[in-house]
Specification:
Length: 195
Amino acid sequence: MTLTTRLTAAAFGLALSSTAAFADCADLTVEDQFDLEEDQIVTLYECLEAKMAEGYAKEGDEIGSNFRSWAPTATRGAIQGAHGTRILNTFANDIAAEQYLKFADEGVNMPVGSILAKESISLSIKKKKARPGPLFIMTKMEAGSIPETGDWLYAGLQPNGKVMKVKQSFCHDCHAAYDDSDFLAYPVEEVRLGQ
Ligand code: HEC
């Protein structure tokens, strides 16, 4: 390749990427996140799917690098509300999957070693953009090891793969409302897998 063709190629590349910035698949057009239709949510998820996985895995975190190979729990991402203005999608590791996928609302006692990882897409109505949000994680520890949270350890990864500072009581104060299902809230009913 001559220098001129290389420069032309570079300029062309720039032109292409600035055009792409015009109509980005992560653009939001709605005034309220609850106005998003099912197919729009699916499109946003597909748009950011690879970026999310790449980001969570960036620092080599074991959960961040592997959760996508776990059992999916929903037919698609969905907006629930409690985790902010976000599209949510939860995966269950092999210890958790069988019990979690029953979506039982009483008498649940998740096996030690269960991990739920919930990826999220943050929606900024003001900026009219969707972007990867945190990966929220719950791990079931040895019985009696953390009485304040029913033995759940709450954690999170930022979209760039860095560990989030998580205040256990912040997470658990809300999850405590789901004490009949071992503090699990489950995806919204319309997207629960196999329901
Ligand atoms: C204001 C209430 C609230 C707070 C605070 C909250 N959660 Fe949740 N969480 C929920 C609800 C509701 C769901 C189910 C939402 C869904 O998946 O659609 C959920 C689901 C989850 C799940 C999937 C497992 C399940 O319960 O079905 C994980 C993992 C999780 N939250 C982690 C966290 C972590 C970590 C924090 C703290 C950083 C946190 N949550 C704070 C309400 C909350």
